[in-house]
């Protein structure tokens, strides 16, 4: 029965994960009337960042419902003190999400999703530096393969661009966003687990839905109280401001289509985070790794379908001769990921013996928080890399 539930969770995670990327890109192209009285596109990366955090915060409602359905003696206590410490990774998440939202203005969705898969390169490097993580030979080889793959994927994106300058900006900002996300994941791991670096780590005995939800709460507060007011005060190109929050609200009020897709984006964020956690619970971390690889494929395929089938070239991306290079880079990326995670074992490397996982009532509560990447522990076991939100 758990396999059936796992299949449902996998399908839901893939559907919601694909929806988040496409909806985010599609919202940028919706036209509506703002405060100046003329129609324009909704190019508001900070508002999308706010919507992402709201979607993460809704995970707390899912957790609360699940807790209410459990017997009292099986409920997990809410550690408020620990949740305050999640403000730190929430700041990194905010920066990474804002950078990613800006990058999506300049790059296509397939490159955006593929580039985010290479975040494991940054995560592994930061874990070696800050968490005293020791990479094995096959892990280093996997990182090397992934580095080559991102070079190929980036080259194909830049070469096929109509505006090379804007695309270079998008690629650079997106890679910086991946680095910031990696910092967030390492911070989360430091807060969620005990590590050998005692000066840096603090255990937070909260389940992943609370971790995701509290980061959403912190991110929402930071956006509303700090980031959006600063963006409103600084001069820029959006009604004379970096981003005009009130203009964004006016555009949403004047367009039901825009409101619908913004709501769909929020729901997709919540659904992806929750479904991804249940993929690991009902199946295992290997299937979560498969999900990570399936998501960019689904995004690319649906983007091609949107272009050629559903919108007649209005939305999506076309297939060019540079797409073959991106396809080769994608396959190389998946190969490198499989090597790093020891899903694909090469005879020239030695591998640790697999550990036997015991089932318990608390398995779901102990499942690592999920993001776009697989998780890697501090010891030598080939479980895959850290954690959360997505976006």
Contiguous runs where pLDDT drops below 50 for at least 5 residues? 194-204, 366-391
Overall form? globular
Distance linking N and C termini: 30 Å
By DSSP, the count of extended strands is: 2
Q: How would you sum up the major sheet? A: 2 strands, antiparallel
Mean pLDDT: 85
Count of runs of 4 or more consecutive helical residues = 15
Query: DSSP strand (E) fraction?
Result: under 5%
Strand order of the largest sheet: 1-2
Computed over alpha carbons, the radius of gyration is 21 Å
Structural class: mainly alpha
Instruction: Give the helices and strands as they follow along the chain.
Output: HEEHHHHHHHHHHHHHH
Write up this protein.
The chain is mainly α and 391 residues long. The chain has a domain at 1-69 and 243-283. Helix content is 66%, strand content 2%. It is built from 15 helices and 2 strands. The chain has helices spanning 2-28, 45-57, 59-69, 80-85, 87-104, 109-117, 119-130, 137-159, 164-192, 208-233, 245-253, 256-282, 285-310, 323-340, 363-366; strands spanning 31-33, 39-41. Strands 1-2 form a two-stranded antiparallel ribbon. Helix 2 (45-57) crosses helix 12. The chain is globular, with a radius of gyration of 21 Å. The model is unreliable at 194-204 and 366-391 (pLDDT under 50). The chain crosses the membrane at residues 47-65, 86-107, 113-134, 141-161, 167-187, 208-234, 258-283, 290-310, 322-343. One of its GO terms (cellular component) is membrane. Residues 359-391 are annotated as: Disordered. Keywords: Membrane, Transmembrane, Transmembrane helix. It comes from Aphanomyces stellatus.
């Amino acid at each position: 029965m758990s396999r059936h539930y796992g299949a449902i969770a996998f399908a839901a995670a893939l559907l919601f994960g694909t929806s988040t990327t496409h909806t985010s890109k599609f919202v940028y192209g919706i036209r509506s009337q703002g405060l100046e009285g003329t129609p324009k596109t909704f190019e508001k990366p900070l508002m999308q960042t706010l919507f992402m955090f709201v979607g993460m915060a809704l995970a707390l409602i899912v957790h609360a419902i699940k807790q209410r359905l459990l017997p009292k003696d099986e409920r997990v206590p809410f550690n408020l003190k620990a949740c305050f410490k999640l403000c730190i990774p929430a700041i990194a998440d905010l920066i990474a999400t804002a950078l990613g939202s800006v990058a999506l203005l300049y790059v296509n969705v397939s490159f955006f999703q593929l580039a985010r898969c290479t975040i494991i390169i940054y995560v592994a490097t930061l874990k070696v530096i800050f968490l005293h993580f020791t990479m094995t030979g096959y892990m280093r080889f996997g990182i090397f393969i992934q580095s080559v793959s991102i070079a190929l994927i980036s080259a194909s994106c830049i070469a096929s661009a109509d505006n090379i300058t804007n695309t270079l900006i998008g690629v650079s900002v997106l890679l910086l966003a991946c680095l910031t996300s990696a910092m967030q994941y390492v911070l989360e791991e430091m807060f969620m687990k005990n590590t050998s670096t005692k000066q840096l780590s603090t255990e937070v005995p909260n389940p992943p839905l609370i971790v995701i939800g509290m980061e959403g709460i912190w991110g929402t507060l930071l956006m509303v109280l700090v980031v959006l007011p600063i963006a409103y005060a600084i001069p820029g190109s959006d009604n004379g401001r970096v981003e005009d929050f009130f203009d964004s609200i006016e555009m949403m009020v004047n367009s039901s289509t825009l409101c619908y897709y913004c709501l769909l984006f929020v729901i997709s964020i919540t659904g992806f985070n929750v479904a991804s956690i249940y993929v690991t619970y009902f199946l295992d971390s290997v299937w979560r790794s498969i999900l990570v690889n399936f998501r960019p494929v689904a995004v690319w395929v649906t983007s091609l379908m949107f272009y050629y089938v559903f919108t007649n070239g209005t939305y999506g991306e076309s297939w060019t001769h540079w797409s073959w290079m991106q396809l080769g880079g994608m396959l190389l990326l998946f190969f490198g990921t499989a090597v790093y995670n020891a899903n694909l074992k090469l005879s020239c490397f030695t591998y640790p013996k697999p550990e036997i996982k015991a089932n318990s009532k608390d398995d779901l509560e102990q499942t690592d928080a999920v993001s776009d990447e697989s998780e890697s522990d501090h010891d030598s076991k080939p479980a895959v890399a850290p954690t959360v939100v997505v976006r």
